[in-house]
Specification:
Blueprint (H helix, E strand, L loop, with lengths): L2 E7 L4 H14 L4 E7 L4 H7 L5 E4 L2 E5 L4 H15 L1
Parallel strand pairs: 1-2
Antiparallel strand pairs: 1-3, 3-4
Protein name: Glutaredoxin family protein
InterPro entries: Glutaredoxin-like, Thioredoxin-like_sf
Organism: Robertmurraya kyonggiensis
Length: 85
């Protein structure tokens, strides 16, 4: 089963745009399904993630929020890949 990487975001968020760029770059190297969710489309998500965005989940597990760095996401992808092999 393919790893799912989900980005919780909102329009006008520069940190979110940076996180998205990092994920799209990593997608060139890692085989995962990318999903993006705008928290402003859900009261529940806005309440849960309002001040935390961007938030990145790998297979349902929150792995990073706020300032996103490539190393942390790649480490989470590496752990997931080892679990699948």
């Amino acid at each position: 089963m393919k790893t799912i990487v989900k980005l919780y975001t909102r329009k006008g968020c520069h940190l979110c745009e940076n996180g998205k760029s990092i994920l799209l770059k990593l997608k060139e190297k890692w085989d995962f399904h990318y999903v993006e969710a705008d928290i402003d489309e859900s009261d529940e998500l806005t309440e849960k993630y309002g001040i935390m965005i961007p938030v990145i989940e790998v297979d349902g597990e929150e792995v990073q929020f706020g300032q996103i760095d490539e190393w942390t996401i790649e480490e989470a992808l590496s752990k997931t890949a080892k679990l699948l092999s």
